[in-house]
Amino acid sequence: MLLGNLGRHGNGPIYESLSNKFSKASEKDTQNYTSDNRTQGIMEKSQWDLKRVRFSGKKVGRMDEFVLQHEQMHSALLREYEDSLKISKKRHRVEEEVWKDKSQKSKRRTGLYVKPLSSPFQYVQEKQEILSQSPLCTNQTDTPACPVSSEQLPTSLDVHQPDTSADPMSTEKKSTEVVVATIPTQSRGTNILIRHSEILSLKPHQWLTGEVIEGLFHQSCNEFKMTNSIYILNHYTAGVILFGDRTELSRQRLSKVNFDNYKAAISFVNIQGNHWKLLYIVPVISSVFLVDPAHNPAEAQESEEAAKKMQEYFKMRMTFGMHDWSKTKWKGATMPHHVQQDGDSCGVVVVLIARELMKCFPVLPKITFGTSRTEMAAVRQELAQMLLSDSVFDSDSNCAICSNSTPPGSSALLTDWIQCDICGRWYHSQCLDMDQASFQEAGTKEWLCIMCM
């Protein structure tokens, strides 16, 4: 149809077949062809089809190739048009609505992740009776202040199965790396792990570790509901800000923390590896307190130097686009407080002052607690009880070494667990470095963990 009747160019059976093919094609209704605009229609259609072939990136060198490609494309369009005529209208099935009979209701199936309660709900009165019988809830007003003893402290995190042989504060046990408490922090989903070797620092005449002090800070912040008002700054970050090298300061910029969301910040720093000081920052009064639990005449001067360090820190954060607390002109300040009367209670005094600040926030408290040796020993016992009672560690689902449900770095589908027959703690065999032979042997006899040996 594009080139007209090709049979007009010669004689013979081939030209006759071309003439017959042209006559049959011209009689079809699908062809846009009339005798009036025969020449014009052929030229326009041929030009359009030639452009379409060129647009598709096909090279045509001879006329017969062009005719062959056009026939293929044109036949495809015709088949598509014929298929469109075969599509029938969509039928909609309409049924009469009827009420379902209750007798036809099938029995409800229990969900896949739903299991019945193994025991009835524990009412408040029964729960109080159980807790009153547990050593976790000893009345502090009835018991006189005395040094820490292994008979008064809780034995494990499970209040229903206390055992004196698994007492974390027992002086007869060697220090281990077993997790005895986990305290939730301000960051969602993160906890501070308190291990057995760290909680032993709460015994009399011992220096408190940084993990225990920071865990007590977060426990007090949760107790007094100050999580949205006072930011607890990590003690390592606070030490870098006050005493670290300037090159290390940018690594502790806390890019995910917006200090404008808080009304104060509190932390503590270590001095020469054997002394703790309290750091308290209040932007409303533009003051930085560096509280020394020991008697220190230069406390005001040290607070002034700490204020200059904080000023440099917030200016450094401005270079990273963080302008919170950057316009405040910090100055050093002091507060009246009691001092320690021994050489190892600096961490305990820091915790007690921090608790008073959180309890009376935003007002500066009047510190009235005593710092004698007997009083410090009793306070150490109370702090240990608070860590153990406020712990959120799930000893039935997590390992007592790695505090996770799966061993770190393990990709195995099945995990070998072993439970102590005395304290009931669960351990990963991988965390205990147990081979398969030792694991199989431990299952045939009584097995004691490193806390109960």
Automatic annotation (TrEMBL):
<dbReference type="GO" id="GO:0006508">
    <property type="term" value="P:proteolysis"/>
</dbReference>
<dbReference type="GO" id="GO:0008234">
    <property type="term" value="F:cysteine-type peptidase activity"/>
</dbReference>
<keyword id="KW-0862">Zinc</keyword>
<keyword id="KW-0378">Hydrolase</keyword>
<dbReference type="InterPro" id="IPR013083">
    <property type="entry name" value="Znf_RING/FYVE/PHD"/>
</dbReference>
<dbReference type="InterPro" id="IPR038765">
    <property type="entry name" value="Papain-like_cys_pep_sf"/>
</dbReference>
<feature type="compositionally biased region" description="Polar residues">
    <location>
        <begin position="140"/>
        <end position="155"/>
    </location>
</feature>
<protein>
    <recommendedName>
        <fullName>PHD-type domain-containing protein</fullName>
    </recommendedName>
</protein>
<dbReference type="InterPro" id="IPR003653">
    <property type="entry name" value="Peptidase_C48_C"/>
</dbReference>
<dbReference type="InterPro" id="IPR019786">
    <property type="entry name" value="Zinc_finger_PHD-type_CS"/>
</dbReference>
<keyword id="KW-0645">Protease</keyword>
<feature type="region of interest" description="Disordered">
    <location>
        <begin position="14"/>
        <end position="40"/>
    </location>
</feature>
<dbReference type="Pfam" id="PF02902">
    <property type="entry name" value="Peptidase_C48"/>
</dbReference>
<comment type="similarity">
    <text>Belongs to the peptidase C48 family.</text>
</comment>
<dbReference type="GO" id="GO:0008270">
    <property type="term" value="F:zinc ion binding"/>
</dbReference>
<dbReference type="InterPro" id="IPR019787">
    <property type="entry name" value="Znf_PHD-finger"/>
</dbReference>
<dbReference type="Pfam" id="PF00628">
    <property type="entry name" value="PHD"/>
</dbReference>
<dbReference type="InterPro" id="IPR001965">
    <property type="entry name" value="Znf_PHD"/>
</dbReference>
<feature type="domain" description="PHD-type">
    <location>
        <begin position="396"/>
        <end position="453"/>
    </location>
</feature>
<feature type="compositionally biased region" description="Polar residues">
    <location>
        <begin position="31"/>
        <end position="40"/>
    </location>
</feature>
<dbReference type="InterPro" id="IPR011011">
    <property type="entry name" value="Znf_FYVE_PHD"/>
</dbReference>
<feature type="region of interest" description="Disordered">
    <location>
        <begin position="140"/>
        <end position="175"/>
    </location>
</feature>
<keyword id="KW-0863">Zinc-finger</keyword>
<keyword id="KW-0479">Metal-binding</keyword>
